[in-house]
Structure of Mannose-1-phosphate guanylyltransferase:
Amino acid sequence: MKTITSVIMAGGKGERFWPKSRTNLPKQFLNISGNKSMIQQTVGRLESLIDISQIFIVTNELYAELIRGQIPNLPHDNIIIEPVGKNTAPCIALASLIIEEKFPESTMIVLPSDHIIENEEGFIKILKTAVKVADHDNILVTLGITPTYPETGYGYIESTKELQILDAQEVYKVNRFVEKPDADTAKKYVESDNFYWNSGIFIWKTETIRNYFKTLMPEIHDILETMKASFNLDNRKEIINDEFNKMPDQSIDYGIMEKATEIYVIPCKLGWDDVGSWTALDRINDRDDDGNVIRGNILNIDTKRCIIESNNGKLIATLGIEDLIVVDTDDVTLICTKDKAQEVKLLLKELRTQKLDKYL
């Protein structure tokens, strides 16, 4: 059987989950749902498919110790350190090179570290199918989440009508990737039967993605070749870091997925959520009779459709409020309307402007 490897991208700061997600302890290392952190859940579900030695995590120096603490059985060398955050294309490119050295001709599963997947058995079954599809030359595979509402915060994938059935799974050829839509467009996408949320989960052979970098992102390919030439040198780490700094800051979606032609999507209904902002708690948690998601020491009267979380034991008392997010930590209290949840980053920008970095 062909070797399967996985790349978990874990360098993000989870800024829309501020103030609980912080620079020193971002969202992927928090227990958002369940009694394990999001990255522990991600690794755990992959371990039902492949050995821990075939799982790689890309992150930065700041989070390397967090990963070692939370995933103690992960081989030390399987933590790939980016010297600087450069978006998903450089992240995936570097990982493909490291994996190619250790597991030649393997098939990579690329996924974020901070997604919730309720149907883990179904997820693994779909990944096995995706690996089979990706076993052909020049084929890229992605998982498309069947939309349940007109979300404007996700990119979408439009499929063609070209269908094949493999392992009882539908597999469609992709027509195009589309950017985050406005509300009217998102509604049209949901009403159609061939648009899916872009999960950010990809499957391909290392050789295939390296060829796509050569064709569509030659600047990154040339840098990878310089890195590869340093593998047997004593200053390998320094060369890789120096060359990585030269990479363009670009997403894999824009650099490759929006330009490649041989892409296939497998539609999924997995209880998936990317937990992108505080309003995700409405979707992944039980609500009380008034539609509230409550965590911690809370007293509420005539409070409706709110998300309220106390992280320090202090009592939060609410009276007569609706559609608000209230999050209290040791040093910050966030209060915002739900419709502004995607804009929490604006507060962080203002903190930087006012040089209040201690709250980031």
